[in-house]
Amino acid sequence: MEPNYNGQNIESNPTPQPQETCPVCHQPILPQYYYCPNCGNKVHREPLSTSVKSQISIYLFSAILPVIGFLFVKRWPGIKYAKSKDPKERQIGQIAWTIVIISTILVIYFAYVATNRAVQSALNSMNMDLGAF
Ligand SMILES: [Zn+2]
Asked: Ligand 1 centre and the CA of 8: distance in Å?
């Protein structure tokens, strides 16, 4: 029992939690299940691997990712078009740049939304009482 900000005692499990059910088939499931034993649907996120091998591969990928992006940008013909003195070619380059910028903004936006959802579901699965915040 720990006192909360109101000086009252809060229990780790203040109200008896209703039995967790599968969102698809509504059969009761245990909180530690990753998949529903009845219908096989995913009910909880599996923990990510923290093994040395997984760490090495994600760190290597992180190091290589910007290099791959840089190589693609260098091969991207939009730069040549945008630098051209010919108005028609330059217009094509400017349209190509605009598409790249819009696409980049959309990718960043969707990555942001997806990250927020992942954080939210991680918090939910921790079954924390955030009512005090
Ligand atoms: Zn199910």
From this structure: 39
